[in-house]
Amino acid sequence: MRPLRDYQQQAIAQLRLSIRSGKKRPMLQLPTGGGKTLLSAHIIAGARSKGKRVCFVVPALSLIDQTVTAFFDEKLSDIGVIQADHPMTDGSKPIQVASIQTISRREFPETDIVIVDEAHKAFKAIFQWMKDRPDVLFIGLSATPWARGLGKYYDDLIIGTTTRQLIEDGYLSRFRAFAPTHPDLSDVKTVAGDYHEGQLAAAMNQPHITADVVETWLKLGENRPTLCFGVDRAHAQSLQEAFEKAGMSAAYMDAFTDRHERSRVQRAFASGNVKVVCNVGVLTTGVDWDVRCLILARPTKSEMLFTQIVGRGLRMAEGKQDCLVLDHTDTTSRLGFVTDIHRHTLDDGQPLAKKRKQVEAAKLPKECPSCCFLKPAKVHKCSNCGFAPKLESNVVAIDGELAELSTKHQAKNNQATSWPMKENFIGQLRFIAQEKGRSEGWVAHSYKDKFGVWPNDERVKHAPMTLGASREVRNWVLAKDIRFAKSRQNDGGAHVSSA
Known about the structure:
Elements lengths: L5 H15 L5 E4 L6 H14 L4 E5 L5 H10 L5 E4 L12 E5 H4 L9 E4 L7 H9 L4 E6 L13 E4 L3 H6 L5 E5 L11 E2 L2 E2 L1 H8 L2 H14 L5 E4 L3 H13 L4 E4 L5 H13 L4 E4 L13 E4 L6 H9 L10 E6 L3 H5 L30 E2 L6 E2 L19 E4 L2 E4 L2 H6 L6 H18 L3 H12 L6 H4 L9 H20 L9
Parallel strand pairs: 1-6, 1-7, 2-4, 2-5, 3-4, 5-6, 8-15, 11-13, 11-14, 12-13, 14-15
Antiparallel strand pairs: 9-10, 16-17, 18-19
Helix pairs in contact: 8-9, 14-15
C-alpha cells in the first residue's frame, strides 16, 4: 500500500482522536485530488487489522468498479460488491463496496464501520441506517461537507487540509479563470438554494452563448483536454454539436450513459481523440481524468457544486502547468475562487440569520477589462495580459471645492486617459451592442457620453470587439439606460433612444 502524505497521516490521527473521544459520526473533509481513496484504503486496512467489517458506500453505480480497482491497487483483498447482479457479489467478504442506489432498496448489510463517500449528498438511506444502527461507526468523506443540516447527522468535522494549501504544496494544479460571458439570469428563479433548472436551461441554451463558448475555447482553450458542464441534457448536447460543427472532436455524457459508452469516452479522452466532453451532472465527482481546461456553462449558486466542478481540473498530471477555467456563468465572480471558499463547522440546519459568521468572506475576484481574466481583489495589474487601469474618480477638485465629474470635465481631461483604455472600453461596448442587438451608432454615442468626445482617433475608432464585458462597464451601461428611460418618462417619450 502506498504511504500516506503528511496531511493524510494527520487526518487519520485526528479521526482516531475523534472516535476515542466518543464520536460515532465523524465527517472527514479532504479537497478533490487530496487522496480520499488512498486515505480510505488505510482506514479500511486499520479496521481489518482489528477484525472489523467495513462497508464503503459510493454515490453512483458507475463508481463501483473504479473503487474496487483502486482498493485492489492498494493491496486490499476480500472485497465483495453490493450492486444488483454484479459478478463480485459475495456477502461473506469482510469488505463490501456498495452503491447507494442498491443500499436504498435492500436490507442494510451487517457491518461494524460504514464509510460514506461524497457524504455531502446527504443520502436519506444513510440517515435511516444511522437511526437503525446507533452502534455502527459511520465515517463521512467529502471535499465539500457544507450541505444544509448535515450537522444533525454527523457529530464532528475533521479538516484534513485545504485546496489552497494543496496547491501551494504542489499536490494540486494552479488555475487561471476567465469570465468571457455574462448571461442574463435576472428572470431565473431560485429553488432550494440554486437556480430553477428549466428556466436556467432556457437562459443558457441560447445560440449566441453557445457560439461564444466554442469561440472562447478556440481562442483561449489551447486545445487542452476539456470538460464542459451544461445545465441539462438538451443544453449539453447543443454544446457538443456546436463543438463538432466547429471541427472539434467532442463527446457527450449524462446519467443515462451506460458503462461501456462511459469507458469508450474516457479512453478517447485520454488518448486525445476527444478533446471536449460535454456533460450534465455526471463528471462532478469520482473523476480522475487528466483535465486541463474546464468550461462552466452551468451557472450555480451552490458553493458545493462549484467547488466540485472546479476540482475536476485541479489534479496534477505530467507536463501540466495549470488548469484554465472558462467561466461563462459569472459563478466565480459571485462566489469567489474555490481557494477562498471555506467552512469550519457542519451546518446544523438553523436559519442563517441566527448564526455567527465563522470568518469574513473573502472579497470577490475582479475581472480584467482587457482580457476577461479574473484576478484576486486588490490586485491592480493583470497577471495575464499586464493591463493596469488608471484609477479614476467621479469627482474633480475645482478651486478647493468638490464637483461631480461632468461631460465638460471629461472632455477637458480626455487626454489624461490612455488610448489603450479607450480602445478597450469601446471594444466592450461593441460586445454589449452585439449581445443586445444595438447599433454602431449606439457605441459611438456611449463612448462620447463616457469621454466627452466622439471616437475619431483611428486606434479607438477601429478597436476590435472584446471577448466579453466587465461588470464595471455593464453597470455603467445600465446606469446610462436607466437615465435615458427616466428622461423619456419626464418628457413623455418624445425623443428616440440612442440605445
